[in-house]
Design brief:
By secondary structure, this protein is an alpha/beta fold. It has 30 helices and 31 strands. GO terms for molecular function: ATP binding; double-stranded DNA binding; mismatched DNA binding.
Length: 1032
């Protein structure tokens, strides 16, 4: 049958919202949902067709009432309580079927508007399913109590469910806990000449924060580290400061544009704070007079927030295949609230003074000997939401009392009092509330007293549930367990007494009316006159106590027969609709009246208890700031105790928190993801006062070292323990870790473009007090130009005087004449293995490493021998071609090495330099010894210190020293192109002399124009350690 067309005009104020709902309908994928959508029309906010069954919108109808509610909250799913179901229609019904896994009510009929719903018992799960999709729900409840049969029950908007803000109506009467999700703020972003401004409003906490002067990278980090309810963008973002550039995929704002692309955002042009506060009040149905508290974020004397790349690569934010830093800070059973606090602490490092207080607190925690509180963790947002709505049940009040008692215990215990005072500072920072210790203690005592005066304690004899021999216990349990044991009896004495009175009357009615009948039925079973049976039963579905039996009727009625009068008074048991339940179910008018009276008394008592709880909510509301503070206090205390325990188990240490000018020092630094008590790990030690240029083979541990340094430094800046045996952390203003990038097809950017975008942020944000950790920059372009860009970056970092590590495989950097003064060459070490070749040691050493171990790495990952053999042949050919075409240069002039074609030509000059350097202090050989191609040094060089010179095929030279010349020559000759390399060596008395002569030779031979590969050892001032270096 063809459906009649509807000509209902669209209200202009609804058009924008109807379009929004149509967009949501277009995203639905289930076939059932798509069939339901065909029955909708876009002429009203419900999507109902008035010409279909259940689609009428006439005045006075339920749909008209729903439409009025929908206009108040046009972008929320509307659920309406109808009897034992919550129902939705039109657009909302489609959402329930698509995302909540429900079926259309009555199926899909072409002549009826779509409807869907869930039983009352499944409301919470349905709301969770919808809010997890980023949608909000408005819930309408029925007014309690009976309504005349001819009239529809009155309904009212009872509350809302939003992502991060659940529906809480009726929780005061609940006897179970309800888990709250992490709060989701409403976020607004604007831009000014100072940078970006990030405004965050939390409806549950009634708070807001304003952070300005942010960089684009810092802003995007904040967006990705929090799940927000709604994002609003100020129109200042559409152009730069001059208003001449549109917001888009390139130029300023490109990173933010990519983050917001495809998301549901709204634009505004008012003052960000006032606009967002008004918008939140509108979205959450909050009265206009409601006040929101600003949480100040001190920006002075503290490090800057951690950027997105750093947070991701250091394991703070979850990234596949990056070890989680949060999981190693505390035991695995630590509550999520504690882990969330530590995450926020790392993302926003505290002021230096607060970090010092945290460290001192943790030190005391590791040495405390007395027992500590359990520290029950309760979300502050949950408590604020429940208290504000007067929906706190007895369980939550007990938790608030426990929180206050834990704080008081910390203050009153002499062994914990110092920890108590130290915990105040991070709690003040996290909560934004300035509470003095004395006021906090006073408030906690008053809270404990007030709650204790109302809430009933466990085992209170006045809270016992009624029990009578002949009345089923389940009946009393069902009607009394939901309110007894919650508040002390004195607060609802009249209602308690009435329930006890009605229970006694019910017992008398059952004993008087049912017991004689039951006795007769049992007597018939024992006699030979019948097979009757019977029992007194509680029927939960009908909330009644009935007699169930058959075969107990007497065959002959007589006045002398016991129970006959009572049997005559029996009537059939009826359900709520007046229908007979069954032939076996019986009751009496007296029993039915007693049951009804008892149920009414129990319901009134329940209401009285809930009223007492809500009055207590009003009383403790004056302590709301204190409740927020102690909830944060206990979360932080539990997190720190857990960290102290785990750090001590892992043998981590407390770093020295230094000043601005001190170097960054680590001894025995380990990767944070390795447990030194269980895993084998190579510790590294260094002192950093400038930039390290780090080279090393593939798989040698460069990236792991950078992550380890980043994580350990960040932990130290936050006052936490670090995975090392000793550490000194200076007052850094930022930590920036940049690891290998990937291309971004969604932004239309190649790998190199992403690298350069990240580089721009690094260059803009780095100061002399920054720690910059850069891993393999410029991999996305050709080697020569990438090398030059990286060289320029290295010079820039050197001029700034910042700390950091720049790791690279661009070994051309090592041969360039850079304008740097403080760059230190570091390498990840290698060692010779029995099978020949080299193997990484994962140890940080002085010097450089030009061997990538690319072929060995490929072989280890399963690349075939055929491919690798051919690759080696091509590499040899390329090296020969390169060496034949290369022209060594020194200071821009070509160096010709014909005079030094034979190493023996350098013998006299080497001897002269060495004799001048030692000045007769040590006995020195008068002869240098030569080792030609395919030759080995004699045995006397074993365990004998030597200084040596190697000549490469390209005419360059390398100066070194060793205590094992045979092993060192063998190691050099395993490198490509050095198999036939000749050596010139000079035996000396000890290793210290060898180091001294090595430095002198490097310095003076370079000054004479000899083209040397290694130059770093010119800076040696102490000679007791022999660095392992490679001339390739």
């Amino acid at each position: 049958m063809k459906r009649r067309q509807s000509y209902v005009p669209v209200d202009d104020r609804d058009k924008e919202h109807i379009c929004w709902w149509q967009e949501r309908m277009n995203l639905c994928q289930k076939p059932t949902t798509k069939e339901m959508i065909k029955l909708l029309i876009p002429t009203n906010l419900l999507g109902l067709d008035p010409n279909l069954r259940h689609g009428s919108l006439r005045d006075g109808s339920l749909n008209a009432e729903l439409l009025d509610a929908k206009r108040k909250f046009p972008r929320e799913v509307l659920l309406c309580r109808i009897g034992e179901f919550y129902e939705a229609c039109g657009f909302d019904a489609c959402i329930l079927v698509e995302f909540a896994g429900l079926n259309p009510m009555g199926g899909i009929r072409v002549n009826a508007s779509p409807r869907a719903g869930c039983p009352v018992a499944n409301l919470r799960q349905t709301l969770d399913n919808i809010t997890q999709q980023g949608l909000s729900v408005c819930v309408m409840e029925e007014v309690q109590g009976a309504a005349p049969s001819k009239y529809r029950k009155d309904r009212f908007i009872a509350g809302h469910a939003h992502p991060g803000s659940p529906y809480i109506y009726g929780l005061a009467a609940a006897d179970s806990d309800f888990e709250f999700p992490e709060p989701c703020p409403v976020v607004g972003i604007s831009q000014s000449v100072r940078g970006y401004t990030f405004v965050s409003v939390l409806e549950m906490m009634r708070t807001y924060t304003v952070e300005d002067g942010l960089t684009e990278e810092a802003l995007v980090t904040k967006l990705r580290s929090v799940q927000y309810q709604q994002l609003f963008l100020h129109r200042s973002l559409r152009g730069n400061s001059s208003g001449s550039v549109k917001w888009g995929s390139s130029g300023d704002g490109a990173l933010l544009w990519a983050e917001c692309k495809g998301k549901d955002v709204e634009w505004f042009d008012r003052d960000p704070v006032s606009f967002l506060l008004d918008k939140v009040k509108e979205m959450y149905d909050i009265e206009d007079q409601a006040e929101f508290r600003e949480i100040a974020r001190p920006s002075l004397k503290r490090p800057r927030p951690v950027y997105l790349g750093t947070a991701s690569q250091a394991g703070i934010l979850p990234v596949p295949e990056i070890p989680s830093l949060l999981k190693v800070l505390v035991p695995s059973d630590t509550t999520s609230l504690c882990v969330r606090y530590l995450r926020d602490l790392l993302l926003n490092p505290p002021p230096y003074a607060t970090a010092a207080a945290i460290q001192e607190c943790l030190k005391l925690m590791t040495s405390v000997k007395c027992s500590i509180p359990e520290f029950l963790c309760v979300s502050a947002a949950k408590l604020v939401k429940l208290i504000g709505a007067r929906e706190v049940n007895h369980l939550e009040f007990s938790r608030i009392k426990h929180l206050a008692e834990d704080v008081l215990y910390m203050h009153e215990n002499n062994s914990l009092r110092d920890i108590f005072h130290l915990l105040l500072e991070p709690t003040i920072l996290a909560s934004g509330l300035q509470l003095e210790a004395e006021q906090l203690v006073t408030d906690c005592k008053q809270l404990v007293d007030r709650i204790s005066s109302v809430i009933s304690c466990t085992g209170d004899p006045e809270q016992l549930i009624n029990s009578y021999e002949h009345v089923p216990d389940d009946f009393f349990i069902d009607f009394e367990s939901s309110w007894k044991g919650r508040v002390q009896r004195k607060h609802s004495e009249d209602f308690y007494a009435d329930v006890d009175k009605k229970a006694a009357e019910l017992n008398l009615a059952i004993v008087g009316d049912f017991l004689p009948v039951l006795a007769r039925a049992k007597s018939l079973v024992r006699s030979c006159y019948g097979n009757g049976n019977g029992e007194i039963c509680y029927v939960p579905d009908h909330q009644a106590v009935w007699f169930k039996g058959k075969g107990f009727m007497p065959l002959l009625w007589g006045s002398e027969t016991p129970g006959e009068e009572e049997i005559k008074r029996l009537i059939p048991a009826l359900d709520s609709k007046g229908k007979k339940v069954g032939d076996d179910w019986h009751t009496t008018g007296r029993v039915e009246s007693a049951v009804m009276s008892y149920r009414e008394a129990a319901t009134k008592a329940n209401f009285a208890v809930v009223k007492a709880l809500r009055c207590l909510s009003d009383d403790v509301r004056t302590y709301l700031n204190t409740i927020i503070f102690i909830s944060m206090f206990c979360v932080i205390a539990k997190a720190f105790f857990a960290h102290a325990s785990e750090g001590k188990r892992r043998k981590w240490v407390f770093p020295v928190l230094g000043g601005e000018q001190e170097p960054l020092v680590f001894s025995g630094l380990l990767p944070y993801w390795l447990d030194s008590t269980q895993d084998f790990a190579i510790p590294n030690s260094f002192e950093m006062s400038s930039i390290f240029l780090l080279t090393g083979p593939n798989g040698g541990g460069k990236s792991s070292l950078l992550r380890s340094v980043c994580a350990a430094t960040l932990l130290g800046l936050c006052g936490l323990m670090v995975p090392a045996s000793k550490a000194v952390i200076p007052q850094l203003d930022s930590i920036m870790l940049r690891v290998v990038s990937q291309d971004s097809p969604s932004e239309g950017k190649s790998l190199f473009q992403m690298e350069m975008a990240e580089l721009k942020t690094l260059l803009l944000e780095t100061t002399r007090r920054s720690l910059v950790l850069v891993d393999e920059l410029c991999k996305g372009t050709d080697v020569q130009k990438g090398t030059c860009i990286l060289a320029s970056v290295l010079e820039n970092f050197d001029r700034l005087g910042c700390l950091g590590i720049v790791s690279t495989h661009l070994h051309g950097l090592l041969d360039m004449k850079l304008d740097t003064n403080n760059v230190v060459l570091k390498a990840m070490g290698t060692r010779k293995v029995l099978q020949g070749g080299l193997q990484p040691t994962w140890e940080l050493i002085d010097g450089e490493c030009r061997e990538s171990l690319a072929f060995e790495t490929a072989k280890g990952e399963g690349v075939t021998e055929e491919i690798l053999d051919r690759a080696k042949e091509l590499y040899e050919e390329m090296q020969k071609k390169h060496l034949s075409q290369s022209k060594p240069m020194v200071d821009g002039n070509e160096v010709r090495h014909e005079s030094a074609r034979n190493l023996k030509d350098l013998e006299q000059e080497v001897l002269r330099i060495c004799k001048d350097q030692l000045n007769g202090t040590f006995v020195l050989s008068s002869t240098c010894y030569f080792v030609g191609a395919r030759q080995q040094p004699p045995p006397f060089t074993s365990n004998h210190s030597c200084v040596y010179i190697l000549q490469r095929p390209d005419g360059k030279f390398y100066v070194g020293q060793t205590d094992n010349l045979s092993g060192r020559i063998a190691s050099h000759r395993t490198s490509m192109g050095l198999k036939q390399a000749p050596f010139l060596y000079l035996p000396v008395s000890n290793k210290s002399v060898a180091c001294q002569l090595e430095t002198a030779l490097i310095t003076q031979l370079t000054q004479q124009g000899l083209n040397l590969v290694n130059k770093v050892d010119q800076r040696h001032k102490h000679f007791g350690i022999s660095p392992v270096e490679a001339p390739f």
